[in-house]
Amino acid sequence: MVARVVPVEPFDLVVFGATGDLARRKLIPALYHRMQDGQMPEGARIIGAARSEMDDAGFRKLASVALEEFVGSAELDKLVRDRFLGRLGFVRLDATTDQGWERLHAALPDVPGRPRAFYLSVAPRFFGPIARHIADSGLRGPEARIVVEKPLGHDLASARALNAALSGAFDEAQIYRIDHYLGKETVQNLMALRFANALFEPLWNARHIDHVQITVAESVGIEGRGAYYDTVGAMRDMVQNHMLQLLCLTAMEPPARFEPGPVRDEKLKVLRALAPVNGLGAVVRGQYRSGNSQPSYAQEADNPQSRTESYIALKAEIGNWRWNGVPFYLRTGKRLRARMSEIAVQFKDVPHSIFPGEGGHPAPNVLAIRLQPDEGITLSMTIKDPGPGGMRLTGAELDMTFAETLGATSLRMPDAYERLVMDVIRGDQTLFMRGDEVEAAWAWIDPVIAEWEERSDRPRPYDIGSSGPEDALMLLHRDGRRWREIEA
Ligand code: NAD
Known about the structure:
The protein is α/β, with parallel strands linked by helices. It has helices spanning 21-36, 56-72, 78-86, 101-107, 127-136, 156-167, 185-195, 226-229, 233-251, 260-273, 297-301, 402-405, 416-426, 435-454, 470-477; strands at residues 12-16, 45-50, 88-92, 116-120, 144-149, 175-178, 209-217, 283-288, 311-316, 328-333, 340-347, 366-372, 376-384, 393-401, 460-462. It starts with 11 loop residues before the first strand and ends in an 11-residue tail after the last helix.
């Protein structure tokens, strides 16, 4: 099977912060791949904008080094690379002053109907000033759009302030808030699975589903991000955005159309239906301790007294007819046993087993939507153990690992940013968060954080390479359930 490429119109993409980590690691490689796959039309241009003392040639050099590092020299097609580098330009500009904006203006042709995207790959404190400067310097035409990424606020008040700053300069229809989890193939496949197949939707409710587990486990620690991460923690860094988005896509009602308005309306309804978290008993925070000559979280963060969580598990409940009584257990953490992300939908037990107990019991069906490492979907079933050994039951998995199912080894799985940047150019906001979604997520998160801050709650220690703190196991044991294994 060959991935179908739908070319986009010629465009201008301005990347603010083009010399930074996100641009080098994700955006430049993503754009290169889009050119390699034939999606970038003649005449499309990418303009890097940053404070650095640099010219076009310097930026092309930086991009070339980034491609060597993050695409890999073996994978790199030198002809495509050279064509790609030819599309790049650079404008030196300071987001906080008036300097450089007329140069940017001069670098952007005024062609009616030509999409013009401003990607803000800079710290959020620059979002407002950059948006205002774009508008003030006459660069915001009807085809302009602005792209921002987390952190979108630190709490509800700051998220509102950020939304106000953006909407002071751009219409909501021009604002693209990236959550790169929504660009993952599997996550979009969750919607295809639910809404393009008649099989699951009739079962997708409290009558048939026992509970849902959403796990985003990382094996790495906070690496060089300690100073930043220590002011944030797992709740703000992962739950407020990625995990709640995954919960929304799992739980939302079928939208009338796969379009930005209907899809985002349904996600928003889920966020607004989230019941307040039921006290600290429904939340377990953890922090990894040192072990095997590896530093603890507090050592890595260089803050011995840190109360920031590098792990969180919580029980979320959705107060509506479809989901009443079905817990959604979320957990995420660093330095865990393996890097593994999945949404696991566990169905209820059969109402009555007809098989003799010694042959084994039917295990509940689990639909697991795996985001990483190998994107794919599996459905665990109970089948008869093959052979003449009587009616004995065993587990088997229907496995749709995309790399295999899609014919694969030759088909590179595109990175989420590739899909999302091209959606920006196409003007499709379906996979981007609307301002009210971001605020609704904070409105649910804020009281939970306020409660642990009020009680000076300390995170529970857990071992590096484990599945998290013991208390997190208890969170499910108390409900007669257990977490799925964290394994790659
Ligand atoms: P970075 O510090 O590596 O890069 C920041 C960029 O902003 C640099 O190019 C710098 O020159 C530019 N810059 C700084 N001050 C400026 C100014 N006054 N005027 C113009 N340009 C200025 O940061 P990063 O890791 O690339 O992250 C950028 C944003 O993306 C942050 O908000 C970050 O939280 C977010 N983000 C990053 C990642 C990632 O993987 N790095 C992932 C998700 C979100």
